[in-house]
C-alpha cells in the first residue's frame, strides 16, 4: 500500500469492487478528498489507497492524463506472463502482497504503472493465484489446481464455441437462409415441437425466437418445414402451438359423459318460433341464431340467441382447462383445431337444426322504421328450423321472390343498417378488408381459395346484431352488478377516421391501423371508440372463443341467481391468459394460410397478376398481389411510386420459407 498521499497526487484507489482514479485535493485526518476524471468529488478512506502515480498540478488535465496512463498500463499488462510469475513463487505457497510479487517479476523499484498492470492481471486471473481482498493479498495455487482450472476453462470454451456455432446455424435458418442442420439438431427440434422436451436447442431458440416475435415452438416449426423434415398439416401446426389435434383421453371421457340438454325450469321457450342461423356452409360450431315474432303496429320481437355451453360443464374441469389452453377454434386450410371436443362444441352445445338447445337470449323490439330497443336478457331454449349460408342470405335479401325467411331477413337487415348508422354517428370506424378463405381438399391436396366480402349484406347483418348483443351484455351486466371484463379502445390519433366506413386501400391500410389505438381489457366499463359504444364485452362466440365462454358463465350465473364463477382480478387473469393464447393461435392461422396460398400460386404457372407498390425494399419494392392480399417483393430497380399498379409474374415462390418474389411481366 502507498503512504498517505499529499494534495496534488494522482492516485488509484479501491472504490467498492473496482479500481478508480483520483486527484487528491485535500487530506483531512485519515481521509482523502479526491476529484475523479468524471468530475465527481469523493471522500476516500486512507485504507483504500492502492497506488500513487506522481503529481498533477492542473485538475483540468486529469482526464487526459488518466487516459494516457490507462494506455500505458494496458500495453504493459499485455506483456505480463502470469505463468512465469507463478512458477517463481509457487513452491512457497504463502500469501503475498502486490509489492512482493512486483519485486519478484519486475525487480526492486517497480514503477507505479508496472505495479498497476500487474494488479489488473492478478485481479482478472483465472488460473494461477487466488485473491484475498482483505489486505489485497494473493496466494499461488497448486499445480493440481491450475491444471484442473485450465481443463475446466478449455471445456467451457469448447462448449461456448459449440453453442455459438449452433446458435449461428439456428439464426441462419430463421433468417430464411440456407442452413445445413445435423440429424441430431433436427431430432431435438422435433422433440421440442411435438413433446416440449427441454434441451439446449430449446434454450437457444427461446432467445432467437423472442427477437423474431415467435415462441420457441413456432421457430422450431418454421425451421423443420423449411428443412423439409415436416410437412405443413393440421397436426404440425397444432404441435407448433404446443397442442395435439386429438384431445387428451381425460378430456374426451368428460365429454362422452355429458348428457344432452333437456328442458330446464326457468328457461324461456322459443321452440314455437322459426329459429334460423346464418353462417359459412362448413361451420359446425353454430354459436348464434335468430327468431322473429310480429307484434301489433308493424313492430317485431327479435331474439338473438347465443349458444350456452356453460350449461354442460363448470370451470376447473379437465375439459375446461384444455379449452383455456387452446383458447379458440382455428380453421386451418388443412382442417380445424377445435377448442372444445366435437361431442360438445359441434354437437351437444351447437345450435344444430332440429335439436333442442340451451341459449342466452337477447330480446329486442324493432319498430317499423328499423329502430332497435333492448328488452331483456333471459336463459332460453330453441330448436333451429333453418340454416342459411351467407350467400343464400344475400340472395334472399336481393331477390324479390317469396321465401319463408324473406321478411325476417329484411327486418333484421333494415335494423342492422340503423344500428350501423348509430355507431358511425357516435364516432365508430369501420375497416372493410376483403379476404380469402383457404381450404385444402382431397388426397391430392387441392388448394381452393374462396373470396369473402365483409361488407356483403348478410355478413353486415350478422356482424351488427352480434355487436349489438355484445353491447347489450355489457349494459345488462352493469345494471345487475355482474363482474365482467370490458374491451375498451381510445379514439384514433387521427379524428378524421371517426365516423367512417373505410374501403380497403392497400397503400393506406397500414397507416390507418397504426392510427387506431390498441384494444385493451378493463374490469370497469370504458368507451370502445372503434365501435362507437360506451361499454362493450365479447360473448357472441362461446363455442369458439374461451374468453366469450367465460363471460357467458358470468351472465348465466346471474340469470340463475347464483354467485359469479369469477371475481375481479381472477376474471381478468383468466381472460388475459386466454387472449395471449388466442393471439398465438391467430398468428399460427395466418402462417398456415400464407403457406397454402403460396402453394396455390406456385401451381398456377407463369400467369400474369396485378400488384400494387407499397414501398421500398432492399431488393426493389414491397408489393401486394391483387386481389389476394399476398405480400411479396418486386425485384426491380426502376423507379416506382407507392400506389402504382403494374403487371407482374412470379420469380420465386417458396411456401416453406414464406417467400414470394416477383418481377415485372
Fraction of residues in β-strands? 25-35%
Kindly name the structural category: alpha+beta
Shape: elongated
Helix content: 25-40%
- Low-confidence runs (pLDDT<50, min 5 residues)? none
Separation of the first and last Cα atoms: 81 Å
Based on CA atoms alone, the radius of gyration comes out at 36 Å
Number of helices: 18
Averaged pLDDT: 92
Number of strands: 27
What's the main sheet like?
Answer: 6 strands, mixed
Word description of this protein:
The chain contains 18 helices and 27 strands. It has 665 residues and is α+β, with helices and mostly antiparallel strands. Strands 9, 10, 11, 12, 15 and 16 form a six-stranded mixed β-sheet that branches. It has a five-stranded antiparallel β-sheet with strand order 4-3-2-1-5, with helices on one face. Strands 23-24-25-27-26 form a five-stranded mixed beta barrel. The longest helix has 35 residues, at 568-602. 35% of the residues are buried. The mean pLDDT is 92.
Topology, element by element:
Layout lengths: L8 E7 L2 E11 L2 E5 L5 E5 L3 E7 L6 H18 L2 H8 L6 E2 H9 L5 H12 L5 E4 L4 E4 L2 H32 L8 H13 L4 H12 L4 H11 L7 H7 L8 H8 L11 E2 L5 E5 L8 E7 L5 E8 L10 H9 L3 E3 L2 E3 L4 H7 L7 E11 L5 E18 H9 L7 H20 L3 E4 L2 E7 L4 E7 L4 H24 L5 E3 L11 E4 L2 H10 L4 E3 L23 H14 L8 H35 L6 E9 L2 E7 L3 E6 L9 E10 L4 E6 L1
Parallel strand pairs: 9-16, 10-16, 17-21, 25-27
Antiparallel strand pairs: 1-2, 1-5, 2-3, 3-4, 6-8, 7-8, 11-12, 12-15, 13-14, 15-16, 18-19, 20-22, 23-24, 23-26, 24-25, 26-27
Helix pairs in contact: 1-4, 3-4, 5-7, 6-8, 7-8, 8-9, 14-15
Amino acid at each position: 500500500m502507498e503512504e498517505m498521499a499529499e494534495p496534488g497526487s494522482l492516485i488509484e484507489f479501491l472504490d467498492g469492487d473496482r479500481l478508480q482514479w483520483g486527484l487528491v485535493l485535500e487530506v483531512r485526518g485519515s481521509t482523502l478528498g479526491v476529484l475523479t476524471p468524471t468530475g465527481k468529488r469523493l471522500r476516500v478512506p486512507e485504507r483504500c489507497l492502492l497506488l500513487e502515480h506522481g503529481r498533477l498540478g492542473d485538475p483540468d488535465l486529469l482526464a487526459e492524463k488518466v487516459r494516457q496512463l490507462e494506455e500505458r498500463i494496458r500495453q504493459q499488462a499485455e506483456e505480463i506472463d502470469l505463468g512465469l510469475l507463478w512458477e517463481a513463487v509457487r513452491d512457497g505457497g504463502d500469501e503475498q502482497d502486490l509489492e512482493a510479487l512486483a519485486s519478484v517479476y519486475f525487480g526492486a523499484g517497480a514503477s507505479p504503472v508496472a505495479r498497476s498492470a500487474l494488479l489488473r492481471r492478478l485481479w482478472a486471473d483465472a488460473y494461477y493465484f487466488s485473491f484475498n481482498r482483505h489486505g489485497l493479498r494473493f496466494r499461488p495455487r497448486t499445480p493440481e489446481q491450475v491444471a484442473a482450472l485450465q481443463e475446466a476453462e478449455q471445456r467451457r470454451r469448447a462448449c461456448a464455441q459449440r453453442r455459438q456455432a449452433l446458435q449461428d446455424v439456428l439464426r441462419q435458418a430463421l433468417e430464411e437462409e440456407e442452413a445445413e442442420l445435423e440429424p441430431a439438431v433436427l431430432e431435438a427440434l422435433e422433440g421440442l415441437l411435438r413433446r416440449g422436451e427441454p434441451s439446449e436447442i430449446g434454450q437457444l431458440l427461446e432467445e432467437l425466437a423472442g427477437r423474431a416475435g415467435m415462441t420457441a415452438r413456432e421457430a422450431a416449426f418454421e425451421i423443420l418445414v423449411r428443412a423439409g423434415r415436416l410437412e405443413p398439416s393440421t397436426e404440425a401446426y397444432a404441435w407448433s402451438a404446443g397442442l395435439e389435434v386429438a384431445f387428451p383421453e381425460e378430456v374426451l371421457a368428460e365429454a362422452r359423459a355429458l348428457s344432452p340438454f333437456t328442458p330446464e325450469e326457468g328457461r324461456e321457450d322459443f321452440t314455437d318460433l322459426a329459429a334460423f342461423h346464418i353462417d359459412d356452409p362448413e361451420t359446425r360450431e353454430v354459436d348464434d341464431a335468430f327468431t322473429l315474432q310480429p307484434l301489433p303496429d308493424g313492430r317485431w320481437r327479435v331474439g338473438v340467441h347465443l349458444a350456452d355451453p356453460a350449461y354442460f360443464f363448470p370451470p376447473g374441469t379437465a375439459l375446461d382447462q384444455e379449452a383455456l389452453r387452446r383458447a379458440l377454434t382455428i380453421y386451418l386450410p388443412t382442417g380445424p383445431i377445435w377448442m372444445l371436443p366435437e361431442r360438445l362444441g359441434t354437437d351437444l352445445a351447437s345450435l344444430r337444426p332440429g335439436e333442442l338447445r340451451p341459449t342466452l337470449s337477447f330480446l329486442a323490439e324493432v319498430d317499423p322504421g328499423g329502430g332497435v330497443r333492448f328488452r331483456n336478457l333471459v336463459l332460453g331454449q330453441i330448436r333451429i328450423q333453418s340454416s342459411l349460408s351467407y350467400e343464400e342470405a344475400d340472395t334472399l335479401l336481393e331477390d324479390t321472390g317469396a321465401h319463408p325467411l324473406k321478411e325476417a331477413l329484411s327486418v333484421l337487415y333494415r335494423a342492422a343498417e340503423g344500428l350501423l348508422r348509430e355507431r358511425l354517428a357516435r364516432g365508430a370506424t369501420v375497416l372493410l378488408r376483403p379476404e380469402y378463405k383457404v381450404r385444402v381438399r382431397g388426397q391430392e391436396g387441392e388448394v381452393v381459395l374462396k373470396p369473402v366480402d365483409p361488407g356483403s349484406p348478410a355478413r353486415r347483418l350478422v356482424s351488427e346484431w352480434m355487436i349489438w348483443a355484445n353491447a347489450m351484455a355489457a349494459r345488462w351486466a352493469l345494471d345487475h352488478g355482474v363482474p365482467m371484463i370490458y374491451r375498451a379502445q381510445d379514439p384514433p390519433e387521427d379524428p378524421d377516421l371517426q365516423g367512417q366506413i373505410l374501403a380497403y386501400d392497400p397503400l393506406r391500410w397500414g397507416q390507418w391501423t397504426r392510427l387506431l389505438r390498441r384494444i385493451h381489457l378493463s374490469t370497469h366499463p370504458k368507451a370502445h371508440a372503434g365501435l362507437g359504444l360506451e361499454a362493450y364485452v365479447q360473448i357472441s362466440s362461446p363455442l369458439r372463443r374461451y374468453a366469450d365462454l367465460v363471460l357467458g358463465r358470468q351472465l348465466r350465473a346471474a340469470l340463475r341467481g347464483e354467485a359469479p364463477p369469477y371475481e375481479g382480478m381472477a376474471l381478468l387473469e383468466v381472460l388475459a391468459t386466454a387472449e395471449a393464447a388466442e393471439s398465438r393461435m391467430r398468428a399460427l392461422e395466418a402462417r398456415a394460410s400464407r403457406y397454402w396460398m403460396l402453394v396455390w400460386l406456385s401451381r398456377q404457372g407463369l400467369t400474369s397478376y396485378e400488384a400494387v407498390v407499397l414501398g421500398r425494399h432492399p431488393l426493389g419494392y414491397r408489393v401486394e398481389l391483387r386481389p389476394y392480399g399476398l405480400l411479396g417483393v418486386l425485384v426491380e430497380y426502376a423507379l416506382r411510386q407507392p400506389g402504382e399498379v403494374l403487371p407482374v409474374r412470379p420469380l420465386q415462390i417458396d411456401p416453406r420459407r414464406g417467400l414470394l418474389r416477383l418481377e415485372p411481366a
